[in-house]
Amino acid sequence: MTAVETPSPTETRTRAAPLPFGRGFLKDTWYFVETAAALKPGRQARYMLQDEPVLLGRTRSGQVYALRDICPHRAAPLSAGRQVEHAGEGETIECPYHGWRFRLNGQCAAIPSLTDDAEFEVDRIRVRAYPVAESQGMVFVWIASDPRRPAEPDHPPPTFPGADGPAPRLVEAMVFDSHIDHAVVGLMDPAHGPYVHQQWWWRSRHSMHDKQKTFEPREQGFAMVRHRPSSNSRAYKLLGGTPETEITFRLPGYRWEHIQVGDKQVLGLTCLTPETADRTRITQLFWSDHWIFALARPILRQGVRAFLKQDGGMVNLQNMGLAFDPAMLWIDDADRQAKWYQQLKREWASSRAEGRAFVNPVKPETLRWKS
């Protein structure tokens, strides 16, 4: 009988097919899930992340944790339970159905229905635990490529310039009925503004003109390098002075604009969280030491909501066409950022599968379009 060689995990990974646009999710990376301020001590909540239910919580002592939100006994959501402490167990999560208790690392600590003389190895039962990190007032969860053999994250969550202070000054969120890929390219698209966002204080299709911007590679992404905002972007005039802005994108779904006005700054960060294959949560967060955020926050909030609703409405219209699975047509230069995103995704997936360093495929380039 001829022996059959079993491929090593590395060999198996190198044969993985690249992710097609609009399907699948990037792994081995950090996803934004919630603001730190929203996770109160002693509380937990259920979130969806990549088609999986995730319990995210904070203990009374302040530690943040993340577990798969399914009890392995009868599938009840652990997030509906409570945090309890018993001698020798430390802080645990108690299932609301039968009281099974799980430590923050996912290991089962106790099964109350067992008798004292029962021969049952409770600690062999586990719930999947996700690496979690709290940074700059945000909570990130690491999604591993192989949940059966989870490894510690090999890089920290992203950090953002200007995300200073304990919490953002403004937070707005909305769920788009789309895959994260469509949400990403929709938000980075430079040509849709005059047609989708036609507020008097922003711009109109009548103010369209040629634009030329310089781009360069950045860590796991790219940036439109610092520049003076376009003359038809009226909202920038509210900041006064001579603002300069830099817009950056980073995998798996972070886009931020860092505006400098003299010694003041504004950071607008958009985090895209893939809840399911066709639902993406868009969270917009703003930090600033500029006086306008103290004076005009209600007006700014209305503007952010208006932008999100308009983009969400366009996603719903786009879904009418995507239901027929059409081929997507990408043009230069207005769609170059969308092309870069797809190249970045392919390279990230390939580098992780092959066990090698990520090589940014984006090269410095000047793009031109009209908007």
UniProtKB/TrEMBL annotation:
Transmembrane residue ranges: none
GO molecular function terms attached to this record: 2 iron, 2 sulfur cluster binding; dioxygenase activity; metal ion binding
UniProt keywords, alphabetically: 2Fe-2S, Dioxygenase, Iron, Iron-sulfur, Metal-binding, Oxidoreductase
CDD domains in the cross-refs: Rieske_RO_Alpha_N
Matches recorded under PROSITE patterns: RIESKE (PS51296)
Domain (Rieske) ranges: 31-141
Entries under Pfam families matching the protein: Rieske (PF00355), VanA_C (PF19112)
Name of the protein in question: Phenylpropionate dioxygenase-like ring-hydroxylating dioxygenase large terminal subunit
Organism: Brevundimonas halotolerans
